[in-house]
Write a structure and sequence with these properties.
single chain; mainly alpha; 11 helices
């Protein structure tokens, strides 16, 4: 268990350093190379659990393994000055959400998936950073980079239980395709957004009041944007939407 503990702690530290690569052009390669480097760890965990005949022994190993990274993160944060802790807490949660948990679920190994679920539970129960994390998969995160301008809008509409073809999403997709994507500046704006939006949504989803946050985004930004677009005030729509992205990035990713 001692060797496993050291490997898991090294994995967390390395992935924490890779948060800066959580972008469209780099996430896939960094994730896959990192998983390959630590693949033996995940395979060994799966094999060890399978070899235990008693379910109670498996459960104990899973609990012990799942507690390693949350306990390590708590120790690392303990002596951090308060003014730096907020930024690090965001990085810690993002590391768990986009690298650690997806790695445990990546190959569909059942015991590793049980470890991931237990790890999420312990991270939240121990209040490692004060904000909860959720189960996440590499496929869902990587796929999120393909939603472009509507990524945040999709998250807002999901929080309101609206379908993928709802009025709001349809309106902003039309604005993207009929206006933004027809100019070089607009295409560049969409590409820049492409890198930022998935991280913003993940960070908001970790907030305890995420539903309230999304409701505020809906009222303050999305509906005014849609009204601008429908009135043909395309530049005002663009400026307001990018103000939203800038403000959310500053608050949830750069704080």
């Amino acid at each position: 268990m001692e060797d496993t503990r050291k490997e898991l702690e090294a994995l967390f530290d390395e992935m924490l350093g890779n948060i800066k690569y959580f972008k469209k052009k780099s996430y896939q390669s960094v994730f896959e190379k990192s998983y390959e480097k630590y693949s033996r760890l995940f395979e060994n965990l799966q094999s060890y659990c399978e070899e235990l005949a008693e379910q109670k022994d498996r459960d104990e190993v899973i609990r012990d393994t799942a507690s390693v990274i949350p306990d390590y993160a708590i120790r690392k944060l303990k002596d951090i000055p308060k003014h730096k802790k907020a930024t690090l807490s965001i990085d810690y949660n993002m590391t768990m959400a986009v690298y650690i948990i997806p790695m445990f679920t990546y190959q569909g190994l059942p015991e590793n998936e049980r470890i991931a679920k237990q790890m999420v539970k312990l991270w939240n129960e121990k209040k490692v950073t004060g904000n909860n994390i959720q189960m996440s998969t590499y496929e869902k995160i990587e796929g999120g980079f393909k939603n472009r301008l509507c990524y945040i809008t999709t998250a807002v509409c999901d929080s309101q239980n609206k379908p993928d073809d709802c009025y709001e999403l349809t309106a902003l997709r039309n604005y993207r395709d009929q206006y933004l994507m027809k100019t070089e500046e607009g295409r560049q704006m969409v590409e820049e957004y492409y890198d930022i939006a998935p991280g913003i949504v993940l960070a908001i989803d970790m907030q305890q009041d995420s539903k309230r946050i999304y409701e505020g985004i809906y009222k303050e930004y999305l509906m005014p944007c849609i009204r601008y677009a429908e009135d043909g005030r395309n530049e005002e729509c663009k400026e307001l939407y990018m103000d939203m992205v800038y403000n959310l990035q500053k608050k949830y990713l750069d704080s």
